[in-house]
Amino acid sequence: MEAAITKLEFTVIGCSGEDPDHVANELNCHTTNCKGFMTPKNCEYPQELILQLDGGSSRVTQIQFLSHQSHIASKIELYWGPGSSNSALEDVPFHRLGYFTLKSNVESNYMARELKTVHIDQEAEFFKLIIHSCYMNERNLYSQVGIMAIHISGTRGHCDHARDQLVTQERFLRASGPTLLSANLSSASLTKGKGDSSDMQFDAKTARRIREIQVAKLQAVADEDYDQAKRLKQMEEHLKNIGIQLTRLESQKKEAVDKEDYDLAKRLKNDIMRLEASSSGSNTKEAIVPPINPFPVEVSHSVRSSKHGEPISKVSKAPHRVRMTSSNSQSEATEMDRPLSAKPNGSYDLDLSEDADDANGTDTHAQNPHFKGIMDAESLPDPEEIPSSLRKESGDLIAILGSYLTRCYYSNVWNHRDAVIRKVAKESDVFHDRSHGNTVQFIEVCCILVQSGIGDRINQVAISAFRLLEKVIPYALDLRREELCRILGNTAAQLVYKLGITQIKIRDEAAQCLVLLATTENIGVVFVASHLLKRTKKTIAVKLLQGRCQVLLTLLTMHVTNQNLGLIPESDYSFENISTFLDETNCYAHQSREIREIAKEIMVALYRIVGDDVESCLKNLRPKQLEEYHAAFQATKVSTHAEKPSGKSQPASKSVKRDADEQEDEDGDDHSTENDLTCPFCDHADTFASEELDHHFWASCPMLTPCKLCGQVIEIATLNDHLLLECERKNNHRECPRCGEAITCKFFEKHVSMEDCLPRPHPKQANRCPLCHENITPSGKKGWKRHLLEEMCPKNPRN
């Protein structure tokens, strides 16, 4: 029986350069306090690193590399060298195994480390790493590459059996996909003591058989023999489970031998033999297809040459490139920049398809049929299997989404999670039909996706979750309010929590979704208010309190145009509950000026609704602060009184169909009687017939403009409000929190991030023209007429 697999200690004996604060010797013994190795600042690439196994020549089965989270190499080549007890290091011939690549880590925002596992089967004493150029990012200012840890596993001492070197080449990099580990827990699996192999998955024999099954499975898929592929997949999972048990038993047996507990060692040996027998049954052997190339192949090596006596730190920077041919062919040196791939004629040559694809601009990834039509998701690889601990609770998800999309939901890759949310939002009718009329089940599954997406640390996933929530609400209109509020409870709590985060986009999206829930008849404002005004024992964070108050102010302001948002006595959305919340959270005298201002605006909004009853809430205000509140109340009373004769309780944005009686001057202009011969907008007098006046509105009035999205002719003064509130395609625009203008969603993020727009003026001081984006003074209709009729706005196409 083969010797037990264990951790192999090594020593870094040479490098072409190192950072003084992150020396190469940090890799010799990895602990939680190790800083890891890092190349010199602004160095030339490639850089080299040479390792020597402490126990001499050993059979190595696995090497693990833990990369730095932001100082990441684009590619690392791996070479091995045989034992050289009687020769100097510079005389050791190094043979190339291949290379592996690392991800740029942009997806995790440089908050994770990539663990690359390489399975080999090679007897060696030396290993050489050729480190190629790094990925450039804002956190890697000096173009460095960092390796946090290296872990080598195998069998100690010399091995009698010779391994075909082709197998080593063929197996190189057939490791499991890259694993992203949390930055603060990244190296936990590599800090085990000597002889501990718990961070390895399989022994060499089991790993070899698993790879053979994987090759056979791929061949079965290529032959479209899916029954065979299914059987091979089941066998692969069975072997993986047995391999983990074998590794654990081997470690326990070694410990028993070290303690001279031979009875225990014998029992463990018998257990190992039974497991090995179960993993090598007749069914397994019959199902495995033999390897494509049964002929032995030799590897030609290029010998590392350097001048005798040259220091190790000055090794050659040119990477060695070799060509691998069959045993009957002569080796030759050639350019080699790709992993090795098998050819039908029995030779192993370079895979140059990546170069060809780069040149042709084509994508080699197969299309993913599950995400057809989903942008940036059509070439996603398959997600990992659902963990056994989650299979029971995933029953409802599988019933609606199917097994594949449920695996995407549980995936550690954020692209999978984002893709499944976007697919459900895009094809909501299809997934609703799968519920067979059980709308409650469909809504519950969608809310699970929404809750998970909103809480995701990747902003793109959260944004997709917001879109899904907006898409799902119409399906819930037939449900009872109590049932719907129960389902949406956790979702609303997540939305309220997002009001306190630093990302403006996510915060605004959460606020819009809460307003949507409040304005939905079957949900209602009381449900939203119960979450907004919820008290906690701990002090509410400043940003969270500000966000909650802002949404509350929005709901109170919308009460004028939406009667469904009116205060409801003896409920969570009552005057008493709102005033109590403001008082308990100390909003009136809060340390944040923004919160104090919002609290005053809330009280002004309440004053418009309940009148002088708000005075009972202002007893504890400072005298000067009380004066400010009373002045705001008085201004509100005057403006409300002035609006009543004009009958202007409508929204600011109006179509050209409004009557002439509604065109009174807001600033005290002459109120001349308008008739059919005078345009009620630009005051142009002419012998208009009814049809001619309509044509004037449609084609030439300089105070009006057609909406480019819906075609409706509206006042230029109300264009922003129309795009945000009234337009049939209002979802195409969002309001900039800085300038207040309607910005196309496609360019919204870029517009907000640049912060070069003019801040919105106070409504009583000036207006903002949506065409030329300049401030207009004075405010009101007089300023609009001056700008559009006298100054003639340069961006007005009707001038």
- Find the structural class using helix and strand composition: alpha+beta
CATH architectural grouping of one domain: Alpha Horseshoe
What is the percent of helical residues? 25-40%
Predict the CATH topology of one domain: Leucine-rich Repeat Variant
CATH class of one domain: Mainly Alpha
Average predicted confidence as pLDDT: 75
Number of helices in the DSSP assignment: 23
- From the N-terminal CA to the C-terminal CA, the straight-line distance is 93 Å
InterPro entries: ARM-like, CEP104-like, CEP104_N, CEP104_Znf, TOG, UVR_dom
Keywords: Coiled coil
GO cellular component, one term: cilium
Protein name: TOG domain-containing protein
Can you give keywords for this protein?
799 residues, 5-stranded antiparallel beta sheet, Jelly Rolls, 6-stranded antiparallel beta sheet
Brief summary of the model shown:
Residues 324-333 have a biased composition (Polar residues). Keywords: Coiled coil. 38% of the residues lie in helices and 12% in strands.
Descriptive overview:
- It is a single chain.
- By secondary structure, the protein is an alpha+beta fold.
- Among the domains are: 6-156, Galactose-binding domain-like (Jelly Rolls, Sandwich), CATH 2.60.120; 204-260; 388-599, Leucine-rich Repeat Variant, CATH 1.25.10.10; 700-790, no CATH class.
- Helix content is 38%, strand content 12%.
- The protein is built from 23 helices and 19 strands.
- β18 (767-768) and β19 (775-776) form a beta hairpin.
- α11 (439-454) packs parallel to α13 (481-498).
- The longest helix is centred in the N-terminal third of the chain and has 33 residues, at 226-258.
- The radius of gyration is 36 Å and the shape is elongated.
- Mean pLDDT is 75; it is low at 159-200, 282-365 and 644-676.
- One of its GO terms (cellular component) is cilium.
